[in-house]
């Protein structure tokens, strides 16, 4: 398995600026951090703008839309989103000395915000110590400054009248940190409480953490994904993390990118979810050790004193735990396949070093592909994180605490197969005795998936009308699949293993990482609302559950977010005014008769990409079949299978749980079959999956899957064998034996080649091989397989 494209950094801005966006809907390449100033405008439609909202806990109805909180917009205290480092007084050098909490120990300056508009109004400035305070570029006046010696606190009113985009710097001179201290010793605990709305003469109380505008905007979403501070995060120990007591929530450790590093404290993430009543989706830094993960789990369950988590319930915690009626989604890092981020290099290097040292379970079956090993490392870490959270949350795992496993969306099979198959096989002892306490993949992981971005059919159009006229969302996704087909493939991989389909990122992406003015205007056009609803409808039809927006901007201006079409679409989805279509993917299962699914009509397939023969003749390592069940009840699952060997077995799973390991009969021919009952299972109405997994090499040829209501499977009428024309060797001595999706039977041992356009891979085959465009021998074929030849 191989990474087809490197994906580089994407956006972090949510509101008036957008950074590093995808260049095209299926491209992962980007190379610049692009700051795009978006023109402020508003549409006539509004729901609840300026009104008081209630933040009720979400129900667990699915599918829903969530949002990436990818910057620090919305803190009531502007200092919490200031630059990470103080400047030498009057400069921008970032080199003023500071204490352990990030407060300056000399006279110093701080850039509080950059390029931000709508800052007008009255602020309350407080800090411990004394200083002469000024504002660079005269963007504000400072009035009513007082000093209380008893509390060593200076207070002042700071009035901003400029409404445009500003770089706002505060300067502290002649500083005296404590009573009796010398001059030029710095200040501590600086707070700059924002106006309660632009232009207001009233500022927020110091007890307020997040602005009303942010909470109102987020009220339209079902959950909040806190990706901010994950990419390039080098934290290993709990002490490395950003704390709520830090001077800025933009903490940057040595070696981290200033674009992103640590960022917001987990306490504030939990607080924002508690205040808005939204489920909490947390990304764990890639290097975080087990103690870090355990402490994070404890913080979510019990709260924190601001430095360390509590280890039991507290009557009055300094920082509260996540509300018990809210869920937590837990993801290991972010885009561990994206080598534009440090975490991808970390994962790949760690996997390689471990395998080279020997004794690793990553290559227990002889796997050698570097990307495959890296993805197994990430999957294993997800399992370990799940186990660490289970130690804290016990039976709340999966029901309330929901680990998720994500893969590269424009490599729809490769990274998914490497991770899912490894966890399923190794940690559930599917292909051998590996662990003493095996569990199905659903014991460790709740959901899985990739990204679901959409553009138009002509992102290069020169007018907004032309963009929408071309079709939005895009119909032809990647050259081979429609948008619906692409999302179906992603969803099928998750559901085949009994997992929910979770899109970690997605939504409107016209113009990708470098949108033109026309692309940007299309985002704010009222028609964008319907485009997102249409995209979400495709997601729902694929069997999606969590649709995450917001890596790219959802609103132009936080104060008017509810006027913007993409926010309105999220409101429609999550508040019942839009009802998506039912799931259309999978085979419809009859409630009265046996439903037969052709063995080659799989929804997912994993081939044997390590050396040697495929693990099953013509099927490979595993094949997944999705079922749409209309009538709840008990269903019997059977497999029509054949082999020319004795003693072979196939494992049959339903929704990720082992139904049985069936004995494959020796039918005397790979084209003769017998029906073997795997067992009966209760199925609710909805989408389900049967996964057939080979537990040993050459385990058999699966002709069909049979699903019958009740306890009896009716054998299908045998399919007559079609007459085979006499093959004609090609000019180079090879004879065509099958088209893509067919079986090449060689009746013995032969050399088989598969490929297209003159580029082929050759393999020694015994009996037969399934001709598909999946990966063989390590890397995906450079061209889709058109046919197989033999000689």
From TrEMBL:
Segments of this protein annotated with the region Disordered: 711-732
One Pfam family, short name: CBM_6
Record's keyword annotation contains Lipid metabolism: no
SUPFAM superfamilies according to UniProt: Galactose-binding domain-like
Any one GO MF annotation of this record: carbohydrate binding
Annotated Low complexity bias: 720-731
Entry-linked PROSITE patterns: CBM6
Transmembrane parts of this sequence: 29-49
InterPro entries, A to Z: CBM6, Galactose-bd-like_sf
Domain CBM6 span(s) in chain numbering: 557-710
Keywords tagged on the record: Membrane, Transmembrane, Transmembrane helix
Protein name, UniProt field: CBM6 domain-containing protein
């Amino acid at each position: 398995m191989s990474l087809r494209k490197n994906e580089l950094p994407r956006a972090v801005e949510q509101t008036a600026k957008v950074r590093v966006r995808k260049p095209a809907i299926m491209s992962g390449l980007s190379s610049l951090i692009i700051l795009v100033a978006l023109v402020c405008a508003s549409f006539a439609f509004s729901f609840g703008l300026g009104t008081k909202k209630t933040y009720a806990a979400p129900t667990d109805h699915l599918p829903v839309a969530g949002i990436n909180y990818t910057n620090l917009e919305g803190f009531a205290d502007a200092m919490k989103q200031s630059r990470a480092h103080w400047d030498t007084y009057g400069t921008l050098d970032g080199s003023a000395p500071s204490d352990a909490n990030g407060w300056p120990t000399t006279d110093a300056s701080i850039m509080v915000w950059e390029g931000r508009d709508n800052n007008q109004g009255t602020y309350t400035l407080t800090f411990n110590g004394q200083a002469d305070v000024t504002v660079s570029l005269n963007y504000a006046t400072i009035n009513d400054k007082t000093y209380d010696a008893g509390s060593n606190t200076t207070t002042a009113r700071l009035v901003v009248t400029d409404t445009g985009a500003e770089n706002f710097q505060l300067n502290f001179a002649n500083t005296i940190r404590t009573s009796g201290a010398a001059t030029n010793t710095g200040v501590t605990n600086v707070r700059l409480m924002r106006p309660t709305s632009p232009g207001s003469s009233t500022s927020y109380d110091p007890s307020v953490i997040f602005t009303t505008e942010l909470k109102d905007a987020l009220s339209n979403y079902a959950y909040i994904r806190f990706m901010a501070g994950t990419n390039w995060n080098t934290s290993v120990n709990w002490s490395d993390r950003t704390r709520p007591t830090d001077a800025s929530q933009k903490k940057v450790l040595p070696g981290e990118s200033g674009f992103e590093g640590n960022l917001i404290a987990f306490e504030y993430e939990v607080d924002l979810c508690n205040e808005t009543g939204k489920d909490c989706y947390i990304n764990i830094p890639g290097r975080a050790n087990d103690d870090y993960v355990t402490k994070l789990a404890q913080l979510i369950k019990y709260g924190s004193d601001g430095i360390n988590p509590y280890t039991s319930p507290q009557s009055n915690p300094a920082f509260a735990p996540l509300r018990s009626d809210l869920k937590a989604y837990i993801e290991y890092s972010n885009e561990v396949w994206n080598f534009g981020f440090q975490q991808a290099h970390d994962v790949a290097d760690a996997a390689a070093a471990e395998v080279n040292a020997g004794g690793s379970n990553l290559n227990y079956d002889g796997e050698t592909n570097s990307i495959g090993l890296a993805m197994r490392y990430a999957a294993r870490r997800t399992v370990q994180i799940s186990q660490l959270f289970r130690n804290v949350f016990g039976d709340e795992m999966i029901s309330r605490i929901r680990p998720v496993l994500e893969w590269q969306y424009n490599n729809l099979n490769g990274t998914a197969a490497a991770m899912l198959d490894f966890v399923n096989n190794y940690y559930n002892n599917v292909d051998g005795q590996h662990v003493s306490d095996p569990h199905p993949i659903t014991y460790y992981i709740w959901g899985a998936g990739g990204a679901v971005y959409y553009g138009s059919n002509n992102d290069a159009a020169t007018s907004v009308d032309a963009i929408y006229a071309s079709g939005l969302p895009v119909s032809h996704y990647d050259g081979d699949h429609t948008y619906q087909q692409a999302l179906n493939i992603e969803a099928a991989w998750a559901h085949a293993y009994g997992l929910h389909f979770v899109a970690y990122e997605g939504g409107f992406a016209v113009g990708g990482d470098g949108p033109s003015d026309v692309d940007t205007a299309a985002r704010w056009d009222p028609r964008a609302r319907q485009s997102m609803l249409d995209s979400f409808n495709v997601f729902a039809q694929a069997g999606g559950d969590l649709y995450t927006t917001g890596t790219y901007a959802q609103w132009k201006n936080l104060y008017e977010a509810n006027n913007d079409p993409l926010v309105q679409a999220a409101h429609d989805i999550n508040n019942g005014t839009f009802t998506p279509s039912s799931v259309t993917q999978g085979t419809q299962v009859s409630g009265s008769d046996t439903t037969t699914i052709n063995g080659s009509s799989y929804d997912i397939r994993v081939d044997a990409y390590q050396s040697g023969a495929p693990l099953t003749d013509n099927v490979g390592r595993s094949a997944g079949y999705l079922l749409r069940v209309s009538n709840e009840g008990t269903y019997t699952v059977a497999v029509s299978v054949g082999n020319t060997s004795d003693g072979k077995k196939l494992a049959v799973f339903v929704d990720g749980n082992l139904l049985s390991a069936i004995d494959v009969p020796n039918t005397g021919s790979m084209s003769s079959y017998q029906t073997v009952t795997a067992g009966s299972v209760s199925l609710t109405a909805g989408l389900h999956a049967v996964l057939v997994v080979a537990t040993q090499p050459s385990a058999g040829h699966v002709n069909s899957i049979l699903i019958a209501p009740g306890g009896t499977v009716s054998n299908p009428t045998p399919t007559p064998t079609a007459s085979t024309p006499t093959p004609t060797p090609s000019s180079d001595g090879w004879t065509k034996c099958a088209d893509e999706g067919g079986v090449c039977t060689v009746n013995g041992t032969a050399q088989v080649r598969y490929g297209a356009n003159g580029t082929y891979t050759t393999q020694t085959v015994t009996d037969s091989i399934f001709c598909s465009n999946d990966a063989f021998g390590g890397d995906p074929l450079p061209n889709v397989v058109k046919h197989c030849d033999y000689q």
